[in-house]
Amino acid sequence: METSVDYATREENGIAAYKKYTVVFILGGPGSGKGTQCAKIVEHFGYTHLSAGDLLRAEAKSGSENGTMIQNRMKEGKLLPTGVTSKLLEKAMLESGNDKFLIDGFPRNEANRVAFESDTKIEPEVVLFFDCSQEEMESRLLSRNQGREDDNIETIRKRFKVFLEFSIPVVKYYESKGKVRKIDASQPIEEVFKDVKAIFAPKHDKASV
After folding, report:
1. Whole-prediction pTM value?
2. For the segment 94-131, what is each residue's pLDDT rounded down to a tens digit?
3. Among 86, 92, 80, which Cα is nearest to 117's?
4. Please, are residues 32 and 132 in contact by the beta-carbon 8 Å criterion?
5. 45 Cβ partners below 8 Å, 6+ apart?
6. CA 96, 99, 103: angle at the middle one, nearest 5?
7. pLDDT per residue over 27-50, tens digit each?
8. List of residues 6+ apart from 72 with CB closer than 8 A
9. In angstroms, rounded to a whole number, what is the distance separating the alpha carbons of residues 38 and 24?
10. 16: Cβ–Cβ under 8 A, 6 or more apart, which residues?
C-alpha cells in the first residue's frame, strides 16, 4: 500500500521514483494499423498496451467527478485540461504491475507530451511512428466493418488533419532527440511486424521473438 511518504515522493519525482519503467509511444494517423501492431508486440514481448482514448472513455463512463468533466468536454468538443490524460496513464501504469508499456495514440499534442514527462519524470525509450499515406488510411478505414460512426470520409479527413496539425510536431520533437523509429505502415501486416520486431528484438532474448 502506498504511504503518505511514498505519495509525496511520487508527486515530486513522478512514478519513475518507484522503479525503472520502459515506455514506447505509438503514433500514426487513423487507420495506420497501430492497434494491430500493438497486439502483436504485447504477445511477443510482454508489454502492457495502454490506449489513451480507451482510458478516457472508461473514465468518462465511470460516473466520477473527473469522468463527468471528461464526458462533458468530449460532448462539447472542447480540449481536456492539460494533464488529465497523463494522470490516467500514470494510474494505469501503477496498477498494471508491469514495467514495460506501449502508450498508443499519445501524446496527441505538445501539451500532452510536456504534461506526461513533467508528471511521471519519464521520457519514452522509443517512439514508433507508423507512416502511411492518407489515401491508404482512408481506404482501410472505409473498408473495415466495425460499425464505427466516425468511419466516414468527412470525419476521417478531419481526424487526419488534426493528426497532421497536432501530432506531427510531437514526432518532430522526438526525432530531434533521436528517439523516432519510422515504420512503413503501408505494407501488409506481417511485413510491418517484421520491421517492428527488428526494433524490439535487440532488447529481448531471441527465444521470445
Report:
1. 0.81
2. 999 999 999 998 998 999 999 999 989 999 999 999 99
3. 86
4. yes
5. 100, 200, 203, 204, 208, 209
6. 75
7. 998 889 999 999 999 999 999 999
8. none
9. 10
10. 120, 121, 122
